[in-house]
Specification:
The protein is mainly α and 435 residues long. It has 19 helices and no strands.
């Protein structure tokens, strides 16, 4: 199938997401994303095919059960696919910059402890605008070192650091699907209140990872000639800050949904990059969207499935349940484990988040929604680095040759279990305190 046609439908889905406030645009976006997936079906992996096939089954079911569910699910699908495509465009733009290459390379310098922390925290920071692109960029450098120097404790620890650094990003990144979906489903929770809990937890998880790494020779330093100066870090950090400020401005000043604001802010940064290129006499090529069928199927399909299932369940619930505070707190404690167990079964966190946020969020005590929100984002983050079916683990397996099962279980199971316990305690305490 011509790649240009697939790219055109992907851009149509993105355009519909941008204008999603207009009548008919959510349905148009969902249809365009679905067509893009079908056009790229032959090139897709098995897991995205299964997710999208289940979404089609949910579509047929909703037609017979309650067609109104289709409108809601299509809107959910359009918002999240638009968000994903906008972040991917921003990722593609930043991946071309010299600043990012210098920053990524400089993370490998220093002694073993410094190198691990640099890679973990650096990957987390790069993940804010790049999402999975950060794993591809930094992970490719790890793979290059393996090809050049062979397997070693240093490369295995570097792989641990990249996976764990990216894994905590869904917990705190204002541009991640996890935070966007959580704030969309739990509108009583503010971004600032969530970050006040999520950022310290993310730092805790990275530092806890120091306990589960291999010993290296302290006298061996992997210095790199390509060092990132303060200007590179300032430009990159300034871009992240500008995008996040744009998100807050659009959501508060114009009342846009958080997902819509993130997509528009990312696209604004992409537009500024292209204008800057034109002013310098350059003509940056238009990014092709011909090879995003896997991502569209997983993100869009999961969003559609979750919306239909949560709508069906909510339709069977009547009234507000009266439960003691300790029971709400206990339920919050179980949410991170639910994400992790579903991830071990190969289920995408978007489905679980939509079900948990859509169902429990409508029943949860309003004052204590922060407890459910922190349970969702921490569970999502631990699932991202602790399960072998996560996209980042599969990307690192392809780049480094280290099996995803080894990275998730043999290298990090104890960290995952410790993180889940800490996340449960935090979510339970916040819920009990606020309820």
């Amino acid at each position: 199938m011509p790649s240009g046609l697939r790219s055109a439908f992907s851009y149509l889905a993105l355009t519909a997401a941008v204008f999603s406030l207009l009548p008919g645009m959510p349905l148009l976006g969902a249809v365009a994303a679905g067509v893009a997936v079908l056009l790229g079906w032959q090139d897709m992996r098995n897991v995205p095919r299964v997710v999208f096939a289940v979404a089609l089954v949910m579509l047929v079911f909703a037609l017979g059960y309650d067609p109104a569910l289709i409108v809601t699910a299509a809107g959910n699908m359009t918002r999240l696919t638009g968000l994903m495509l906008a972040v991917m465009l921003l990722s593609n733009v930043l991946a071309r910059t010299r600043d990012l290459q210098q920053i990524s390379s400089s993370l490998f310098g220093g002694k073993p402890l410094t190198r691990y922390l640099s890679l973990a925290f650096g990957t987390s920071l790069v993940s804010v605008p790049l999402n999975f692109g950060s794993v591809a960029v930094v992970g490719s450098l790890v793979g290059e070192r393996i090809r050049r120097n062979g397997d070693s404790p240093a490369t295995r620890n570097a792989t641990r650091a990249v996976l764990r650094g990216f894994g905590v990003a869904p917990t705190f990144s204002p541009l991640s699907i996890s935070v966007v979906l959580t704030l969309t489903l739990l509108p009583q929770v503010s971004l600032i209140s969530l970050l006040l809990l999520a950022v310290p937890f993310s730092v805790f998880m990275v530092l806890a990872g120091l306990r589960w790494r291999e010993p290296e020779s302290a006298d061996i330093s992997d210095e790199d000639d390509s060092r990132a100066g303060a200007a590179s870090w300032l430009r990159f950090g300034g871009l992240i800050l500008a995008v996040c400020v744009g998100v807050l401005w659009l959501s508060h000043q114009f009342g846009l949904s958080y997902a819509h604001a993130v997509a528009l802010s990312c696209l604004g940064a992409v537009l500024l990059y292209r204008v800057s290129g034109w002013l310098k006499g350059q003509n940056p090529p238009l990014t092709s969207m011909a090879h995003v069928s896997n991502e569209l199927a997983i993100v869009g399909g999961s969003a559609f499935i979750g919306a239909v299932l949560s709508g069906v369940v909510l339709g069977q619930i009547s009234g507000q349940p009266e439960m003691p505070v300790w029971l709400w707190a206990l339920m919050a404690a179980g949410v991170p484990w639910l994400f992790f167990m579903a991830g071990l079964a190969g289920m995408n966190p978007i489905i679980i988040a939509t079900l948990v946020g859509g169902i429990l969020g409508s029943l949860w005590p309003t004052a204590a929604q922060l407890g459910l929100a922190i349970a969702m984002v921490t569970g999502w983050g631990i699932t991202a680095f602790g399960t072998p079916f996560a996209a980042n683990a599969l990307i690192m397996e392809r780049l480094t040759g280290y099996r995803a099962r080894d990275a998730s279980f043999r290298w990090g199971l104890a960290l995952s279990l410790s993180g889940l316990s800490a996340a449960s305690l935090l979510a339970m305490s916040v819920t009990f305190w606020l309820a």
